[in-house]
Structures are given as C-alpha cells and as structure tokens.
Specification:
Layout: H1 14-39, H2 44-80
Helix pairs in contact: 1-2
Length: about 80
C-alpha cells in the first residue's frame, strides 16, 4: 500500500462513500434485528446482536462524518492559503 501524505479521501470519493453507506446499512440492519428478533422470531439473542451492531456502527458513522468534514475544512483552508501549512 502506498502512503500518501496529506491526501486523505474526501467525503465525495468512492471509498469514503462506501464506508458511510455500509455503516448506515449496519445501523439499519441492527435496528431491524433488534426490533424483529424478539417479537417476530422469539429469539432474544438476535435482538441483542442487532442492538450491539447498531451501537457499534452508529458512533463509527459519526466519526467518519466528522473526519470527512475536518478534511474538507483542511483542504478549503489550504486552497485559500496555499503557502501556509
């Protein structure tokens, strides 16, 4: 893997969007499992697994949103002042 110093992906790039979409899907699947696991299938373990899937994926989603916003602000500041680091 090639290390690119200072070239983090922007929120509009493919890999970044894929990560965000997968995390949103994880949260939705986790909530669905949590709600349907105990009621529809009568299995509380499925409900518990859905709860933990949603609880782990939601903060990761928020972290990647924050990371993308920070990178966009950094690049905007770099374009305004290209000589500053």
């Amino acid at each position: 893997m090639i290390y690119r110093r200072g070239a983090h992906p922007l929120p509009g790039e493919g890999i970044y969007l894929t990560i965000l979409l997968m995390l949103i899907a994880n949260v939705c699947i986790g909530v669905a499992l949590m709600l349907l696991g105990g009621e529809l299938w009568g299995n509380p373990e499925i409900s518990r697994a859905g709860f933990w899937l949603a609880i782990v994926s939601a903060p990761l989603y928020l972290f990647f949103r924050w990371l993308g916003r920070r990178e966009m602000q950094r690049r905007a500041a770099q374009q305004e002042h290209p000589d500053a680091r």
